[in-house]
Design goal:
InterPro entries: FAD/NAD-bd_sf. Pfam families: Lycopene_cycl. It comes from Streptomyces pilosus. This is Lycopene cyclase. Helices cover about 25% and strands about 30% of the residues. It is an alpha/beta fold. Among the domains are: about 160 residues, FAD/NAD(P)-binding domain; about 70 residues. Strands 1, 2, 8, 9, 10, 11 and 17 form a seven-stranded mixed sheet that branches. A seven-stranded mixed sheet has the order 6-5-13-14-15-12-16, with helices on both faces. A three-stranded antiparallel sheet has the order 3-7-4. Helix 1 runs parallel beside helix 2, helix 1 packs parallel to helix 4 and helix 5 crosses helix 9. The longest helix has 16 residues. The protein is globular. It starts with 19 loop residues before the first strand and ends in a 19-residue tail after the last helix.
């Protein structure tokens, strides 16, 4: 029997929970190389409370990556360095190898999981340190600092107030640039049936691979044992490849160039690094700073980031201890100006990329070259290096670059830098 009467009213929705508010002196957003490096430096600053916000487990958390850099050793990262190489080698397109010993520098590898575990342990032991798993939704200036609006894994909102916020999350798009290339790569962690590698020698660039119509390509080999290595195929070009194309290039390199024979691919990694003369803003607000690739730490001409991130992290920690609010630039103006010229010369094809980089290793003393690639050489040293490059194409490009317009490009599919 049907009962008449007023329609039953739908249940009122539950009110949204009021966000809790917590405070720290410093909030670091992102757990990549830049965020972890800054947290690592700040945990030794007892006067500051530090909250590191990392995404919860799920699709936003990247897979394990490797980060490489050269250093003299004896630093505070020694315990997370998983491999190092005292000898560097470059293979020219003509097949001739250039082998250099850059002592006291060594080329070093850090795995992201080891670095992450190390920094998390430091935060856990630090009275003012904290690791928060949450999604950072927005960051805004407020009187006296900034507020980060987060969502916890439970779905509840949380507001973090801080005097300083350092945002290391990858940029959603790249600023306008005169030249924009991509360094894109795929790597195999391989195990061979016999001993094929010299664990002392890192092959930074091996140009014995087929070169693309535009840009350049090279192999990259970091031995981890006589029968294990990270082997990569890398391109500097305008567009990325398909996974099948990377796999084919890696197969050719391992089989036909390196002659590795039977091997097992134990793990892969892949990424994209912007190589651009764009001007990356270092501030997103009065109290909000960008660090890492988003703040311009990636060296435009090489894609190296990790060493610049370490320098910047030390400088930021020192500035906060001394009560200064300035964020130092990751690279000097001279280095960026030279990179803009080199990127343009590569993009236009005025210089041959394999010959250019091989020539640097053949003609420049190795310690000076590594300091040049890190942006720590003097003007006189840079002048001497410039004389060892193709003079006429570089001079023509140097005259042209200041008059080129900066244009926006479609955003790249970003991967975290491992170099």
């Amino acid at each position: 029997m049907e009962v008449s009467g007023p329609e039953r009213r739908a249940a009122d929705p539950e009110p949204e929970p009021e966000p809790a508010t917590e405070e720290s002196d410093v909030v670091v957003l992102g757990g990549g190389a830049a965020g972890l490096s800054l947290a690592h430096r700040l945990t030794g600053t007892d006067a500051l409370t530090v909250t590191v916000v990392e995404p919860p487990d799920g699709p936003l958390r990247p897979a394990e990556r490797t980060w490489c850099y050269w250093d003299r050793g004896g630093g505070d990262l020694d315990e997370v360095v998983c491999a190092s190489w005292p000898v560097l080698r470059v293979h020219g397109a003509d097949g001739r190898a250039v082998t250099v010993d850059p002592a006291p520098f060594t080329y070093r590898m850090v795995r992201s999981t080891a670095f992450e575990g190390h920094v998390h342990a430091l935060l856990d032991r630090s009275p003012g340190g904290r690791l928060l798993r949450a999604t950072a939704d927005s960051v805004d200036d407020v009187p006296g600092g900034a507020v980060v609006r987060c969502t916890l894994p439970t779905g509840r909102p949380l507001h973090l107030r801080a005097r300083h916020v350092f945002d290391s999350r990858p940029p959603r798009g790249l600023p306008p640039a005169r030249t924009q290339l991509l360094q894109h790569f795929r790597g195999w962690f391989v195990r061979t049936d016999t001993e094929r590698f010299d664990p002392r020698v890192a092959d930074l660039m091996d140009f014995r691979v087929p070169q693309p119509a535009h840009g350049l390509a090279f192999g990259y080999v970091l031995p981890l044992a006589p029968d294990r290595a990270l082997v990569e195929y890398t391109e500097f070009s305008r567009t990325v490849l398909t996974t099948d194309a990377y796999e084919a290039a890696l197969g050719h390199y391992c089989r036909d160039v390196l002659g590795l024979g039977a091997l097992t691919v134990e793990r892969t990694e892949q990424g994209v690094i912007p190589m651009t003369d764009a001007r990356f803003p270092r501030r997103a607000g009065k109290a909000v700073f960008r660090i890492g690739t988003a703040g311009g730490a990636t060296r435009p001409s090489t894609g190296y980031t990790f060493a610049a991130v370490q320098r910047q992290s030390r400088a930021v920690a020192a500035a906060l201890r001394e009560g200064r609010g300035a964020l130092p630039a990751p690279h000097g103006r001279r280095a960026l100006a030279m990179d803009a010229v080199l990127l343009r010369a590569l993009d236009t094809g005025r210089i041959d990329g394999p010959d250019f980089f091989t020539g640097l290793f053949r003609r420049v003393p190795p310690r000076r070259l590594l300091r040049f690639l890190d942006g720590t050489t003097t003007p006189l040293e840079e002048w001497g290096i410039g004389l060892r490059t193709p003079m006429l194409p570089m001079l023509r490009t140097a005259v042209e670059v200041p008059f080129l317009p900066r244009r926006s490009r479609p955003p790249a599919r970003n991967g975290e830098n491992h170099r």
